Amino acid sequence: GIKGPSELLKLKTILFPWSFPTDIMHLFFENMALQMYAHWTGKFFNNIPMSNDYELSKSQ
C-alpha cells in the first residue's frame, strides 16, 4: 500500500499541480463544463442562499 508521500514530490522540476493540466476528457467528458456553468449561474447550490461576485447575471 501507500505508506507516505510520493518520491515524485522530491523532484524540483515537477510543480504540482501545474505539471499536470486538466485534459479534454476530464474537463468536458466528465460533466465538468456543465457543473461549472451551473456554479457560475448560481444554480449549483440552489438550496443555499448565496451572493457571489462571480455569478453571471441572466443578461450575460
Poorly predicted ranges: none
Radius of gyration, taken over Cα atoms and rounded to an integer in Å = 18 Å
Amino- and carboxy-terminal Cα gap = 49 Å
> How much of the sequence is in beta strands?
under 5%
User: Structural class of the helix and strand makeup?
Assistant: mainly alpha
Order of helices and strands: HH
The biggest beta sheet, please? none
Percent helix, as a range, is: 10-25%
Number of strands: 0
List the domain count as a whole number: 1
Number of helices: 2
Shape type:
elongated
* Average pLDDT, all residues: 75
Describe this structure in words.
This protein is mostly helical. It has one domain (1-60). It is built from two helices and no strands. The model has no long low-confidence stretch (mean pLDDT 75).
Summarize the structure.
With 60 residues, the protein is mainly α. It has helices at 24-28, 32-40. It is built from two helices and no strands.
List strands and helices in order, with pairings.
Blueprint: H1 24-28, H2 32-40
Keywords:
single chain; 60 residues; mainly alpha; 2 helices; elongated
